[in-house]
Amino acid sequence: MPKKGKGGKNKRRGKNEATEFKRELTFKEDGQEYAQVLRMLGNGRLEAYCFDGVKRLCHIRGQMKRRVWIGMDDIVLVGLRDYQDSKADIILKYTPDEVRNLKSLGELPENLKVAENQEEDPNDHIQFARMTNVEEEDSDSSDEERKSDLDIENI
């Protein structure tokens, strides 16, 4: 006989919906450093720029895998390894509110940009140069001369 469970898939679907709660702000300790994720490498690994000026290959620990989603430009707390300076382990991912609090307390650099807070800057768009003919650059030529120079056979 099959085992009788409690409810169907809709009951299971509702379990992951956690209510918003305020957790205590965690500061770095000895052997830890703040870092910003540069790129995701897959297989639970990523490349992060630590705020002590070193790029490190970081490993997402098993407790966080598949539970906490880490993306590019996220701010994380990494545990440094004594035996490998170029590698570290992800300990904690900070929320955007926690990042703002750390920034205001002076723990993070002021020039840090958080991806969720960035608004679209009109100066960031790519500008394409308009291709011009030599005749258009010449200021002495008039519109009538340009029209007469056009010939359907040249097109």
The SS-based structural class is alpha+beta
Q: What is the multimeric organization of the chains shown?
A: single chain
Poorly predicted segments: 117-123
Number of strands: 5
CATH class of the domain at 28-120: Mainly Beta
Topology summary:
Blueprint lengths: L8 H5 L18 E11 L2 E6 L4 E6 L14 E6 L6 E7 L2 H9 L29 H4 L5 H7 L6
Parallel strand pairs: 3-5
Antiparallel strand pairs: 1-2, 1-4, 2-3, 4-5
Question: Quick summary of this structure?
Answer:
The chain has 4 helices and 5 strands. It is of the alpha+beta class and 155 residues long. A hairpin with a 4-residue loop joins β2 and β3.
Structural commentary:
Belongs to the eIF-1A family. The protein is α+β, with helices and mostly antiparallel strands. The protein has a domain at 28-120: OB fold (Dihydrolipoamide Acetyltransferase, E2P). 16% of the residues lie in helices and 23% in strands. The chain starts with 8 loop residues before the first helix and ends in a 6-residue tail after the last helix.
Structural descriptors:
4 helices; 5 strands; extended; 155 residues; single chain; OB fold (Dihydrolipoamide Acetyltransferase, E2P)
